[in-house]
Amino acid sequence: MYKSVEKKFTDTDIKEIIEKEIKIDVLMQLPIEKRNKYIKDIYQHTAVSIRQLAKVLGTGKGIVEKAVRSS
After folding, report:
1. What CA–CA distance (Å, rounded) separates 69 from 36?
2. What top-level branch of life does the organism fall under (predicted)?
3. Is residue 55, in this structure, part of any structural domain at all?
């Protein structure tokens, strides 16, 4: 789904990576389970911080934390 690389990403980089798959506003309107799967995949394959990912997605840190820790 997302290429796994070992480098630092800017907010713009992360946004571009996400939007190759799905628009951020569409992602945030998906059913919770599906949204969380996308968030978890992005987090695992980009290795960005939860705080940075929340900022890029325009959502709270708690939402990203729950998505990352979900099974």
Report:
1. 9
2. Bacteria
3. yes
Per-residue pLDDT tens for 51-63? Answer: 999 999 999 999 9
Tokens linked to 1: 């789904």
> Is 5 a domain residue?
no
CA 16 remoteness from chain centre: 11
Name the phi and psi angles at 58, rounded to 5.
Answer: 70, 35
How many domains does the chain contain in total?
1
Which residue carries 């980009």 as its tokens?
A: 46
How many angstroms separate the CA atoms of 45 and 4, rounded? Answer: 5
In a domain, 6, yes or no: no
Which has the closest alpha carbon to 12: 46, 36, 38?
46
pLDDT, tens digit, 9 for 90 and up, residues 18-59 = 999 999 999 999 999 999 999 999 999 888 999 999 999 999
